[in-house]
Amino acid sequence: MEEREREGKGKVSSLIEKATNSTSHEIDPRLLKAIKSVARYSDSEIQLAFDTLMQKMEKEHSQVRYLALLIIDELFMRSKLFRSLFVVNFDQFLILSVGFKKDLPLPAPLDIATHLRSKAIEYLEKWNSSFGIHYRQIRLGFEYLKNTLNFRFPNIQQNAARREQERREREMRSKEILLNKFETLRENLSSIKGEIQRTIDEIGECLDLLHPKEEEFISFDTTEEFECRSVALQKIRLEALKEGDKLHETSENKVLFDVLRELYKLVVNKHLASLQDWISLLVRVEPADCRFRDSTLKEFIDLRNYLRSLKNRCEQSGCTLTNTPNDEDEDIWEEVKIEEADSGAISAQNVPNKDHASTNTAIEKLNNTSGRTTKFSGSKNFDGKGECSDSTSVKRSLLAEAPVMTWGASLDDWGAKRDRLANQRGLELEGHWGRVDYDAVIPAEKIAELNVQASLYKEDHVEIRPCCAPVKSGGLCQRRDIRVCPFHGPIIPRDVEGNPIDQAPLADDITPDDLVKKLAKQAVKNVRERDRDEASRKSLKRAERAKAREHNELVLREAALASTSYSENVGASNQNGPDNQENKQTLSSMLRKKITPKDRIAKRLLNRRASNATRQLIIGEDTKYREAYPNQW
Amino acid sequence: MWKEVGQREMGRLASHSFVNRIKSNRISSLELSNYKEILSAHKGAINSLQVDLTDGRYLLAGASDGSAAVYDVQCPARYEGNGLVAKHEKIFVIDKQHEQGHKYAISSAIWYPIDTGLFITGSYDHFVNVWDTNTTQVVVNFKMPGKVYRTAMSSVAKSHMLIATGTEDVQVRLCDIASGAFTHTLSGHRDGVMTVEWSNSNEWVLVTGGCDGAIRFWDIRRAGCYLVLDQLQTQLGRRPPVLLQSSLKGSTSKSIPDQSSFLKARTPQKKSAYGNGTKHTSIHNRTKSSMGQRQHPGMLSSHDRATAHYGAVIGLKVSEDGMYLLSAGSDSRLRLWDIGSGCNTLVNYEATRLQMSKGIQLAVTQDSSLVFVPCMTTVKAFDIWSGRTSMTFRGHYEKVNCCWFSSQDQELYTGSNDRQILVWSPSHPVHAVEDERGGEVLMSNSDQDNWSD
To answer: Which residue on chain B is closest to A131 by alpha carbon?
Structure first.
């Protein structure tokens, strides 16, 4: 037991050691789990963990403190013993984590220090809300930071509560509005229904008047007698038949149509929309008694369905109903489309021309309607489009020959040959000394001179290609030089991987000598390529093997971890191996300043040689000057 | 505890030792109280704290924002967290809004020692105000020549009601509440007087510590100071008991003059304010002639220039029995003086840092075993006789200015620059033991281990 205890003792502190010796922004979850499981079963472990963590918090490195803080939070939220140990030195902890003392600021990596501070404040708030009542020290620390130092806490809980409250209020308000609307509906229900009913009745009457007899079914029957070969043809025919069934506006039923159109508009724009609104209101509202709501809802849905069917009937009764209420410019577009469709239909119909005679009637009818529509569109063209097209053609021709000018002040009075008043903007000249000529005029040529069109020289854009030579770190050199890259020599065309592509030399300077050379080069290249292929294949194989090995290791390590947490050490040490090899960020490297281009320049310019040289230069100039003008200081 | 109760029941333990044991037991377990909280009404640093001497119930606090408040430390105003935390609120507060309030920081607020009907505040606005507690009106006020650093009233006085005030000025003035006038002006210090303290054994003896590093003893019945403590005049530990001392007669001078010598020493010129000069020589001569060896230290310049600390004396505390004096200096030293012999006892208090800018208020337990000293942001409890740190109280976030130990409840109150008044109480409160542990159960519910994984 003792032994185990001692073993464990090293354990938790070494685990913490390892967990805090990292550059990542969070603790390795496995390490954390291991720490927790070790600390869970023993008070002495917690004591030790506390000591170790406080030591870590005193380290002059924000990253270490940050990671220690994360572990502290985990343990603090879990262990009562840890809390009671921890609060004793709570002020110390706050100084180390928040750094509110001027003489004890947070240590080096600045970005992590700010991170540490914000995290500590966040945790402090959390701890205060969950355990503050039991630990006066936490309350004191929280109050001190909040009230005396005026730190801004994230206020997570309160914010959440406030948001919840706001949401509830919003809901309440909307519910109230809904209820109000519902009440008005209840009051006005009869009038609404009456209005709609009236419209329905009127439409019904109109339709009755327009349809003295029902011919629809008969025509359908007749159409069914024909055998249609092509589906297109059948469709066209049906459409044509329907078209024929529609009532056409004549001078005698024009009044009826007008009324019907009005009523239709009323139904579509007003009644249906308002019904939809009412229904959605009824769906959403939660009144005290649901009976009224349900019954009304049902009524409204019925009414809506009836209105829809009525609308359909109206639409079926005459196509003009749908078209006429539309705006005029939409009209044109629609007609063009119809024309196109018609012509298409006709052409399609022309191919199987030798069909039944009975289709002729349909075609006739169809032509009839299309003729009517085209006529309509023609008239339209006549009153607006004709002129327009004339003017546009002239304009287009002018535009074609006009030069393109850049915009500028010279365009303000293009081609104007007028003199201008000098004081055209109303400048106050009363207080001016000297002679004032109120009618001073700038002559036209002067203005023209002033407004000469300025043209800027524009360089032709030349694409400078990047050097594209392969770079050691992988990738290609992105320097753009015209002829020679200072690192990779003359710029030559290269392929995607950066290998130079041998350009075929120009035909005229091929000499036999060159040819031989080229052939030799080609041969060498071929051999090398083969070698390279071989090598790459080998390396590929090697990489594969390494990968397999790595995978095996990983699996083994995980298995070991799963079996006992004690093997953590081994795994981690293994892990450290490759880490050290590659150039990895470490805690100390975080403290080092990053080398910026400015630093590099400074290193070159501010070294002793350079400054000596400049000093020499200055001294030389000084002496020269003094010799030249010995009587001057 | 139950063992002691049993022994007491059996009569094996004397009542006072029983009490002492319980008390010292409780004192040794002092810690930041979680169940008792004083809601500070001040917007500035707390400079002075005192619980009244009669009821032990009302805590008077003076703060840098010119406010003084009284808190009831026995009966909480309300509870929080299901009765877990008792909040003690102010009973009343006097601040700048009050028409008679102080304009600047209150440096010292003390109770009238006889009852809680009066209290006295001294402030940086040069005034010492005497307040009626019940009406919160000023009864008398005294205009001082400079900032008031400390006021003190004798708790053992039967025949006078004088407020001793230490100010920026070199003179210590004694203000008489009864007449509303200065009765004495004690000259001797060469710099401002940071702290004043009445003796606990003699109602006429006043101790003052100045910024010049001197601690002077005054007998207010005669002119001039009669003792200046010298840090270089030392003795190791306590003096031998009186019986032994009589055999060693003559080696150390008796410092507190007995009544007969005083009667002789009294002269008509007693009230002279500038009493350090020529007139005293005559007294000195006369005393010398009558007492033979007896010297008056105030006369001799070498004695007169003695210092108790390098730097200012910022805190003084006389032990409960009036035999010892503790002093704190801006040299961050704590010294224990034997008042009888006037010697530095060379107790080495462990190294601390004391604040230098302000006076500090020390506290001593009743049995003179522990002294509580504000050391920067912490308060430390030293064993008086060995100088070892026995406890450190951390909780304040800025410098602590004052502390007060309530012997009745064995509670420590500390006030600091962070505007908080903290209560430090024995870890196991009496009522928690007596209770049917209602609060404890509640506590255990929400403050438990919670290992989810």
So the answer is: B447
Tell me if chain B has a CB within 8 Å of the CB of A410. Answer: no
Among partner residues A134, A141, A143, which is closest to B447 by beta-carbon distance? A134
Structure letter (DSSP) for residue B167: E
Which part of chain B has CATH 2.130.10.10? 30-237+304-446
Question: Tell me, what's the ipTM?
Answer: 0.78
**Distance from the B370 Cα atom to the nearest Cα atom in chain A, whole angstroms:** 21
pLDDT at residue A380 greater than cutoff 70: no
Poorest-confidence range of A341-355, A386-400, B189-203, B382-396? Answer: A341-355
- The mean per-residue pLDDT over the stretch B153-163 comes to 89
In this structure, the strands spanning B36-38 and B85-88 are parallel
- Partners of A38 on chain B (C-beta within 8 Å) are none
pLDDT tier, B430 (very low <50, low <70, confident <90, very high otherwise): low
Q: A11-154 — its CATH code?
A: 1.25.40.90
Q: Output the pLDDT for position B124.
A: 92
Which of B34, B395, B448 comes nearest A80 by C-beta?
A: B448
Question: Whole-prediction pTM value?
Answer: 0.59
Best residue of A76, A86, A91 to probe chain B, by most B CBs closer than 10 Å: A91
- B378, B392, B451, B452: best mutation site toward chain A, by most A Cβ within 10 Å? B451
Chain A residue with Cα closest to B83: A133
In three-state secondary structure terms, A212 is coil
Residue A229 confidence (pLDDT): 58
Size of interface A-B (CB pairs under 8 A): 61
DSSP element (H, E) containing A347? helix A328-350
CA distances from A156 to A97, A162, A522, B447 (A): 20, 10, 72, 21
Q: Do B453 and A36 touch (CB under 8 A)?
A: yes
Contact status of A89 with chain B (Cβ, < 8 Å): yes
Instruction: Please write the tens of the pLDDT for every residue from A110-148.
Output: 888 888 888 888 888 888 888 888 888 888 888 888 888
Domain B30-237+304-446: CATH superfamily is YVTN repeat-like/Quinoprotein amine dehydrogenase (2.130.10.10)
